[in-house]
Amino acid sequence: MEVTADMVKTLREKSGAGILECRNALKETSGDIEEAITFLRKRGMAKADKKGDRTTGDGAIGTYIHPGAKIGVLVELNCETDFVAKNDEYQALLKDIAMHIAAAKPRFTSRDDVTQDVLDKEREIFAHQARESGKPENVIDKIVDGKMSKFFEENCLLDQPFVKDTSITVQELIKQKIATLGENITVGGFSRMEISK
User: Fold this and answer.
1) Which of 21, 95, 147, 163 is the most buried (most CB within 10 A)?
2) Phi, psi of 87 (to 5 degrees)
3) Where do the DSSP E strands lie in the chain?
4) What pLDDT, on a 0 to 100 scale, did the predictor assign at position 16?
5) Mean pLDDT of the chain
6) Is the confidence at residue 19, as pLDDT, over 80?
7) 31 and 8 in contact (C-beta within 8 Å)?
């Protein structure tokens, strides 16, 4: 099937991918725009995984103040170059992550940031709860592991379901942007403040 310039243009507008990538995707999918978008996303995620080891020495700090000015967030989002840091899509990601932090109240950026004493304490609490509810000793470790997974999902920013689209995690959202923008992106840290009565 012949790939026309209009088809490439349509796919570019929908996907944000380059001309050559769009042309190749359309060839691979026999001109099916929706299939081509899926093809590009799969390739983009694979590329995003490869970019994960690259140094993020640039970036930007974003803010979010919730209406009513009782909740505020500062977040550091790192990338590889100032060119990407100034990009509108990157800035929108920064704002989305700051807004997510305001709403979801993560305690840690990632699982790696959870201190050993917190991990030990949570495991101890979950094991105690399982024993108190009469669970047999041989299944307690599995129960604790399941509860720890839930703990990470609730308390670690990158594991949390993204508030604007709960079908993906914040980490998956970032990977989508890595695929689109072509640079590694990491969360350097954040601070959430709330005035409570």
Assistant:
1) 21
2) -65, 140
3) 58-65, 71-79, 161-162, 165-169, 186-194
4) 61
5) 87
6) no
7) no
Which is more confident, 121 or 3?
Answer: 121
Average pLDDT over residues 15-36: 81
- Assign 164 to helix, strand or coil: coil
Q: How many CB atoms lie within 10 A of CB 126?
A: 19
- Cβ contact 8:23 at 8 Å: yes
The more confidently predicted of residues 51 and 172 is 172
Closest CA to 34 of 3, 7, 4, 6: 7
Distance CA 67, CA 71 (A): 8
pTM of the model: 0.70
Q: Is 37 exposed, middle or buried (0-12, 13-18, 19+ CB in 10 A)?
A: middle
Q: Name the nearest CA neighbour of 47 among 151, 195, 184.
A: 184
